[in-house]
Amino acid sequence: MERQSAWTRWDATAREKISAFCERYRCFLSQYKTERKFIQGCISLAREHGYQPLEACDRLKPGDKIYRANRNKQLILCQLGQQPLSLGGHLIAAHVDSPRLDLKTSPLYEEDNLALLKTYYYGGIKKYQWLNLPLALYGTVVLKNGEKKEICLGEKPEEPVFTITDLLPHLAKDQMKKTIEDGFPGENLNILVGSLPEPGKEKEPVRNYLLRWMKEEWGISEEDFVSSEFEAVPAGAARDLGLDRSMILGYGQDDRVCAYSCFLALLHTGPTEKSSFCLLVDQEEIGSSGVTSAQSSFFQTFVEELLEKTGSGLKEKRLFFENSKAISADVAAGLDPSYRDVYDPRNAARLGFGIVLERTTGARGKSGSTEPTAEYLAYLRNIFDKHQVCWQTGELGKVEQGGGGTVATYFARLNIDTADCGVPVLSMHSPFEVTSKADIYSAFQGYQAFYQEE
Ligand code: MN
Ligand code: MN
Question: Which ligand is located closest to the Cα atom of residue 256?
Fold first, then answer.
């Protein structure tokens, strides 16, 4: 199949529009680096665009814009269309959590006069990639009395950062012989946080200094770690990448690049026939099992409340699902020229060639894949072509090489037509992921075209 770089289809004016869109994305990505922050950022932007909390509305009518957040980590936005909900809606779902290092419940310890924090990695990472980087710490601590402390340290240039050390090459003779899996044990991912001793303390002076510091600066004691969420992520902003500035290098683009594009697409969708939904979910990287994940019944409850408030019966819920269409907006693996042998170049997605329509994401005999029907794929490609969206097909590596899941299955099982469709990424799950501005903008256009379809 003939493929064409998306860039060749745009003139100077179009390229300027793409740069401006991606600059706003780059800032948003840099500002909201945890699932909580990202949801917070989306809610404030949605409110600026006229979205109201669902719980504040008694009756709903076509054109109304509502949202509902679940525990600060999941968000559903909806713009009601002219048609009744029983005729179905257009849904786009993306996840807002990204691989990172979480602090353990009892993280702080001292060894050889250095203080460190124990971590547990979240999501599938190649552990060695997370060493020797400046890290920032984000924390939400809830005290026993319910008081909440929000902590962020390491993002501003004047703030300190943190790091995980690695062995010097001079002493790495044994380490170098190990496999990558064994050479970097998860229990060694300990974050260096201090070396100053507390005056007059003989036992664990450095740890004691930091315990006092945390009490004074953050107002928390060691036990409060039990009810906290601390996440370490690469410090600093996302950056333009390349001499031609055609790409973006930044943390957390899986899957905030799709989350941002589909969220913006909804904000910029005018009145429609069908109702439009944007679902931003949490915990995809650890299997979507939690209360704020795609498997939570939060979406179904939202739909039930919507049906009631639009004057429809609850029995129309199943019709709503049956007649709805969904896109699982998640990133795809872009063809990496340095590791070509794990891809089938004829079927791999390429950076800069547009949004990726993926038929199969499963492993080996398509295991775990949410196969959309040929009818549904035809429906989607027709929409993209009709709206001149740059798009391509893709897959997750060679047939017997890889595989991975997305949230698609949780919508497909509700009897909703669902297909995976997102932005190709290089260095996926690494501290700094790479995307092309052409693909980010194509995703925005593709998602908008989907929302606008009758
Ligand atoms: Mn993902
Ligand atoms: Mn992922």
Answer: 1
pLDDT band at 398 (very low <50, low <70, confident <90, very high): confident
Domain count, the chain: 2
What domain range includes position 274? 6-98+251-452
Q: What is the mean pLDDT of residues 417-435?
A: 97
Let me know if residue 240 belongs to a domain: no
**CA 47, 49, 53, 56 torsion: positive or negative?**
positive
182 and 282 co-located in one domain: no
* Same domain membership, residue 197 and residue 131: yes
Above pLDDT 70, what percent of the chain?
99
| Residues 258 and 315 grouped into a single domain | yes
* Residue scoring higher pLDDT (397 or 62): 62
The Cα 394–Cα 156 span in angstroms is 38
pLDDT band at 402 (very low <50, low <70, confident <90, very high): low
Tell me how far the alpha carbon of residue 347 lies from the centroid of ligand 1, in angstroms: 20
pLDDT at residue 427 is higher than 80 = yes
Distance in Å, CA 11 to ligand 2 centroid = 33
Please provide residue 373's backbone torsions phi and psi, each rounded to the nearest 5 degrees.
Answer: -75, 160
Nearest-ligand number for the alpha carbon of 258: 1
Distance 260 CA to ligand 1 centre (A): 13
Output the CA 405–ligand 2 centroid distance in Å. Answer: 8
**195 CA → ligand 1 middle, Å:** 37
CATH code, 106: 2.30.250.10
Assigned token pair, 153: 């340290």
Ligand nearest to the CA of 124: 2
- Does 255 lie in the same domain as 230? no
Residue 186 lies in a domain: yes
DSSP string, 380-408: HHHHHHHTT--EEEE-SSSTTT-----TH
User: Which among 344, 347, 336, 357 is positioned nearest to 400, based on CA atoms?
Assistant: 344
CA gap 224, 130 in Å, rounded: 26
Contact 381, 304 (CB under 8 A): no
Between 406 and 386, the more confident residue is 386
- Give CA 136 to chain center in angstroms: 18
Let me know whether 329 and 411 are in one domain: yes
Cα(258) to ligand 2 centroid in Å equals: 12
pLDDT greater than 90 at residue 144: yes
116 with 87, same domain: the answer is no
The per-residue pLDDT for 63 is: 97
Q: How far does residue 188's CA lie from ligand 2's centre (Å)?
A: 23
